[in-house]
Structures are given as structure tokens and as C-alpha cells.
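Dissemination and training. As part of the outreach component of the grant, students in the summer workshop were shown how a complex can be specified as a set of sequence lines and then modelled as a single object. The example used during the hands-on session is reproduced here so that future cohorts can follow it. Participants entered these lines:
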Amino acid sequence: MNKAMNDEIVLSVNDLKKQIGGKPIIKGVTFDVRGGEIFGFLGPNGAGKTTTIRMLVDLIKPSSGEITICGEDIGRNPEAALRHVGCIVENPEAYPFLTGWENLEHFARMQRNIDDTRIREVVQIVGLDARIHDKVRTYSLGMRQRLGIAQALLGRPKLLILDEPTNGLDPKGIKELRVFVRMLADQGMSLFISSHLLSEIQLMCDRVAIISKGEVLAVGTVDELILGAGQYVVWQFEQPGAGRRLLEGELDVQLIGEHEHRIDESLFAGMQDVQVTTMNQERIPSLVEKAVRAGIGVVAVHRIAPTLEELFLRMTEGESIG
Amino acid sequence: MDRLLPLIQNEALKIWKKKRFLVILIVLLILIPIFTYAQMKIAETNKSHFKDWRNQLVQQINEYQNMLSSDRIPDEWKRSRRIAVQQLQYYLDHDVNPNSPDGVTFTRSFMSNAVTLFFPLLVLAIASDLVSGERTAGTIKMLLTRPVRRWKILFSKLVALTMYVSLTVVASAVLCYLISGAVFGYDGWAMPVFTGFVIQGSSIESSFVHAVPQWLYLLMEAGLIWVSSMSVALLALMVSVLVRSTAASIVTMMAAVISGTILSSMSSSWQSAKFIFSVNLQLTDYLAGSPPPITGMTLGFSLLVLAFWAAASLTVSFSVFTKQDIMN
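and obtained this result:
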């Protein structure tokens, strides 16, 4: 997992609540983020992710509850607490009438001990050297994102908060971001990343909190929560009919009908005749062997994570059973 | 304080880079030549009619007196005309030309005519989007998540605003002098101007009247314009904190300023209108001795009203800005 992870608690959120116009928006959120870990904050749109993040960085005052960053209470001493934080809330914003460099200088002046060398350093880290002296107005979204991250890194923060960082990025950009985030974590920085995409959190994060309707449903490692919640195994055979009969013959394999699973349909793009099942994944090799011996060609076996909705369904079901 | 200087530098830099001050300079560079040309035409006409400025003054006094004897003129007008006649007579008696065609005199009258509408407008160009602009662009999120207390950010905006308002007043006077001087000549610094007219009802108490050199008069005028511009700026800052969109902020402030001009010309019977800030903007009139929009208003009263509005705006601005939730 992560070499730089340690037990120091960088961000601690305790029973955080927010009411807006008498309506409870956040109904008690509690979690800790440790040093050097990538912490995912997963929830569907409207679950209260952005409101929570805004409270973490003092844009919104909580109705009750506590937030401490590196031991400093954000409500009582925001100046000290925010010194340890870099953040991008929603879109990376910058002054379009200034150059990238002037933007960084602007934010550098708001913190202590940041000189030109540090600005040059962060520009290099995000790879914006070539265009840094151009007006931000001429930047693409990807470049604004880089500038936003450069700005967030200026103060050598212990905690970097990114709100839906993959929004608007192309697949290449998303992949670069993933590598970048891991690199920062390896250097000992803690990252707090919100997303409504399970797959993204799965690929990027060490631990995750799942939030829905203003409440945290669960906090745990990605493996515990997502893999534990069960994955689908999707089969593709050369002879679909024979393959299906083979799977039907196995008692511990449950075939799922075409419209009953909750997999993101876009994942099936370009795949034909898929058989969606739930089964013990350790049985995949033996089943493949069996199919081959029966003369049924196996084209592909995929493990596919359920959608966020599926995960929620299972979690809330689990609650009602337990 | 050493922590505030970089913040002030930031805010001043942003206003500069948004090219707001440049716009103000360009507006001045276009408008002043137009007014100069108009003034030149008037001067030419007067010169062809009257050989001597004294004849012109006598003519003007006669005109006003004819108006005073007419029944169709409202009392309000008559009062101000009666005062004007007395002032003109005072200038005539002391052999001083109140409209001498030179750069300094032009600057003096331009500045005093600009105080109710033109200066507020220029101030709004800078002040209206100071906070609302950051909200519209979303940069307020970056600004308020840095390890700096919110009051320091608003305070640095306030200081930058004060600097640019001062600069606007100075730049207007300087440009006006330079441009009009090219036509009328750069003289007139030492010319005496009468001030200290005390208005009692429809007559003038002239025992306090004294002559000051025009440079001193201009300086006093600029000071009063600064005060009235700053009160507009502080109000605009408050509106900019309270209103999310810059357009709404400009419209609100323009409406407030213009309503003041309209009220000044019609509210003689509505006494309590004198507590409205925009009725009190024409501070330079007290210096020139023109009758105030509502009887009983004095320079001290207007300064007090403006100070009250400014203090209230600052209180509201700071308490809202430091506490409000940034939701979008």
C-alpha cells in the first residue's frame, strides 16, 4: 500500500453538523485522516461532500462539531489550521487577468516563507513551466487544474484537499493525476479526495468514507468496503449458449439477468454476449479449466465493481439485517 | 502590519491588472477635452457680446432680477437666484471675475460639477466588483482558504480602494488642468475666490466672506470631493459584499447615487431627506456658497451624515464578510 503512511492524525472530524435554513444538510460526520494516506470521500452528487469540504477549509461555519487539522481547531484558530492545508474546492479558480506566475505570487504573498524558488519548484512539479508566464485566460481546463494544484502545494501543506479532481479531465489526465497523487502521498502528504465515482476512489485511495444524505455510512480501507461488498464476475465465451449452460450447472454461481445487475452500462461497451454472475472469485481458475476441457473457449473473465448505488443498497440492507 | 502589506499589494495589483484605473483615465481623457471645447465656445460667445467681463456680470444679474419679479417662477428657484445675485454682486463689488478663463478656474468648476455623479461613477468602476467579482469568478474560495483572517483580506481591499479613490481625484484634477490649460492658459493659481458665504433664508450673510487664492480653494475642493467619493466607495464596498453579482452591485449603487441627485432638486419640502447619503454628496457647494438642496443643511451636517453612512457601511461590510458562509 503506502510506504509513508503513519499513525499521526492530520485531519480529525468529529460529529460535524450543518443546518441551512433549519434543514439539516450534514447530520453528523466523523472520520480521521492519517499522515501519508490517500483518503477517499465517496458519495453521490448531493450527498453533502462539497458542504463538508467547505467546512474543512473554513468557507462554511459548522453548526456543531469539531474539525482539527494537525491539532489546530479550525473554528478557534483558522489561521494556524489552514497553514497546513492546500485545497481546490470544486473548480480550480485563478485570476484570468493575471499570468499563471502572477497568480502563484499572489497566493504566495498570503503565506509565510514562500519565495520565488518555491514557486519555481511547484511550477516544475505540475509541469507548467512552458506556459507559466501566459495569462490564465488562455489556459485550457487541464492547465488551470495544474495551476490550482501548484497553488495548493505552495505552502508545503500536510493535507491536500481535492474536490472531484477528475471532473473534466480526459482519461490520460486522470491517469496522470492518479500517479501524481500517489507520488505526493509517498512523500508523506495526506490527501483527501472526494468523488462520486467508485472506480476512481478504488484506483486512487487507501481508505475511504462513504457518505450519503449527509451521513457517513462507513469508513474503512478500500478493500474492506468495496471488495467486501462483493464484485461481479463477468464471463465472455466463444460459444455463449454452451457457456451459459456450464455456469448454470454450478451451484455456487448465481447468474444475474441482463437488467438486474447494477453495473455501469458503459463498461459493457463493445462486449457481446456477457454473462454477469456473482461467485467466489477463487473459483475462477477452476471454472476456466472446466470450460476449456468441455471445449468452450473463454474469451474473457472480468471482475467488475458494482456501482455506488449497489454499494449503498448493500450497506443499507446490511444495516437493516444486522 | 508587515503581514498586511503583501495583502494590500495583492489587492492593488488586481485592481491595476483588471485595467480599471486605465478605464478611468481614458474616460477622463475623452470627457475633459469635450468640456474644454464647450467652455471655449462659451468664452468665445461671451467675448463677442461683451468687451468686459463686468458687463457680462451686470447682464447676468439683471436677468436674474427679471426672473425674480416674474410670478411664474417657483419660490424655490427665486431663493437660489436671489442668493446668486448677491454673490455676483459681491464679486462685482470686489472687482474679481468669477469666470476668468484660465486652466485653474476651469478645473475648479469641472471638479465641483463632477462631484455628485461623475466621481461616484468613476469610484464605482473600482469598488463595485471588489468582493462580488471574486465571488462571481470563484476566486473567493482560494482567497479565504489561505491562512489569513478574513478581516485582513477585506481590510487590504479597503486600503487599496482608498488608494485608487485618492488617485482618481488627483488624476482628474491634474488631467483637467493640463488639458484645459492648453486652451485657456495655465494661469489662475493666485486669483482670489470668495468663500464663507453663510446662507440665511434667502439672503447671504457676508461678514464671514473672505478671499482665498484659487490654489487653496482647489485644494479644499479636492479634499471635500475625496470625502464624498470615499463615502460612495465605502457604500459600494458594502453592496459588493452583500450582493453576489457585480451587475446587481453596480445597478444598486448607481440607483442610490442618481436618486440622490433627483431628490436634491425636488425634496425641499421633504425635510428628512437630508439624512439620505446621496443628497449630501455635493460638499463643494458649501465652499462656493450655493444654497443647499434642503434648507438647514450645512457643511458640518453633511460631513456628519456621510461619516455616519460610511461607518455603518464599514460595520456591515466587516461583520458580514467575516461571518458569511461561502456556498458557491
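The first helix of chain A runs from residue 49 to 56. Students were then asked to discuss how this feature might be tested experimentally.
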